[in-house]
Amino acid sequence: MDLPRAYIPGFAALADACLELAGRPERRVVLYPHVNADGDALGSSLGLALLLERLGVAVDIIVGEAVPGKLGFLPAASRILVHDGDAALERRLTERQALAIGIDCPAGERLGARRALYEAAPKQAIIDHHISDLAPAPLIIVNSRAAAVCEMITWFQLYLERRLGLDLSHIDISTCLMAGLMTDTGRFSFTNTSSRTFAAASLLMRQPVPTQQLASRLFDAVTPAKLRFIGETASAAELRHDGRFILSTLEADVMTSVGGVETDLEGLVALLRDVEGVDLAVLLREMPDGDIRGNVRSSERIDAQAFARAFGGGGHLRAAGFTVHGHQLGTLQAEIFAAADRVFAQLDADVAAEPASGPEF
Questions:
Q1: Structural domain count, the chain
Q2: From start to end of 68-189, where are the E strands?
Q3: What is the rounded distance in angstroms from the CA atom of residue 88 to the CA atom of residue 91?
Q4: Which of 89, 184, 223, 313 could potentially form a cystine with 308 if both were Cys, beta carbons 3.0 to 4.6 Å apart?
Q5: Which domain holds residue 309?
Q6: Domain end among 192, 219, 246
């Protein structure tokens, strides 16, 4: 199987930085998945940690919140450290981290309270698949065409195997990486799924990954809280532009009364997008600290990332998000509707300007 050539320079630099730490447990790689880490962020962090440890490299993973129960089954999830302001933990990490790697994000604000720890490392790297404005650098590995960071880590594993002449495959690594692949592709059904995604999945299936069990745990199981959120999201949904735009909100009192955890909210905006005729879907939810988080999904006719960027966010062409500070929900809703008005006005103008198609043969 061919290794995508574009990865090789970044993978070579990352491998050099990691392998020089082999056999030196006092000098460690520390992985920083984004805040509210999802299946791809956690799966890729765990998969990379287990991969590097097979090469004698010591690794820590530190997250901003407790691992969601829905993802607690992932191999080695119990070893993940939670950043809770513990001064002793921060001091220990700061003293021993030789390389800090931002996972599934461009670092910065997406690390939350861990940002200072990441930036204190003598060397930093990033592995991400989101559209970003990061300046090119040897240890900045970004591919917005990759379906998931787990896809990128799978290719990194293949690079290491060929460079070192080793078989590094392991059931735990493959399970973690497959979980992230399945999460970010909707079981390989989203438009971000490519031939390289399937090739990466094929590499992972050198081990007997329990894909049916993964699908059941990641997608089919519905908690009582998620069932409530589905109902609240559907009840609050508002359609505009002849049913091509849909907006729903989860207000703070709903979030409080339902409770649940972050993973109970996964898939809600996708349900909105899947409504027949919808080209653009937005879900807003009020957070306990007053911030409002927005999730955006779109059809191939609209750039979700560009829509989110107008509100300070980013992401992918079809899936993106943003967080707004200091806004009232009603004010933000009005701004969202106005932005949608502009998007669909431009879309309609573009369609009207298209030349009429000739007869079909």
A1: 2
A2: 81-82, 97-103, 124-128, 140-142
A3: 5
A4: 313
A5: 224-350
A6: 219
E strands, 67-168, are 81-82, 97-103, 124-128, 140-142
359 falls within a domain: no
CATH number of the domain that residue 129 is part of:
3.90.1640.10
- The Cα–Cα gap between 111 and 33 comes to 7
| Residue whose structure tokens are 């240890």 | 139
Based on the fold, state whether residues 168 and 275 are members of the same structural domain.
no
Which DSSP state fits 101?
A: E
Structural domain contains residue 357: no
- Whether 313 contacts 303, CB under 8 Å: no
Task: Among 219, 244, 267, give the residue marking a domain's end.
Answer: 219
Buried-exposed string 221-236: b where 16+ CB fall within 10 A, e elsewhere: eeeeebebbeebbeee
Sign of CA dihedral 78, 80, 84, 90: positive
Instruction: Give phi and psi for 292, each to the nearest 5.
Output: -125, 125
List the structure tokens of 316.
């992918």
- Quick one: 130 and 233 in the same domain? no
pLDDT tens per residue across all 361 residues of the chain:
789 989 999 999 999 999 999 999 999 999 999 998 999 999 999 999 999 999 999 999 999 999 988 899 999 999 999 998 889 999 999 999 999 999 999 999 899 999 999 999 999 999 999 988 888 899 999 999 999 999 999 999 999 999 999 999 999 999 999 999 999 999 999 889 999 999 999 999 999 999 999 999 998 888 899 999 999 999 999 999 999 999 999 999 998 899 887 778 888 999 999 999 999 999 999 988 889 999 999 999 999 999 999 999 988 889 999 999 999 999 999 999 999 999 999 999 988 887 755 444 3
Per-residue burial over 59-69, b = 16 or more CB atoms within 10 Å of its CB, e = otherwise:
bbbbbbeebbe
| 341 and 194 in a common domain | no
Instruction: Judge if 76 and 165 occupy the same domain.
Output: yes
Tell me, yes or no, whether 38 and 156 share the same domain. yes
Report the alpha-carbon distance of residue 22 to residue 221 in Å, rounded: 40
What pLDDT is stored for residue 358 in this prediction?
43
Structure tokens at 138: 């040897």
Residues 159 and 204 in one domain: yes
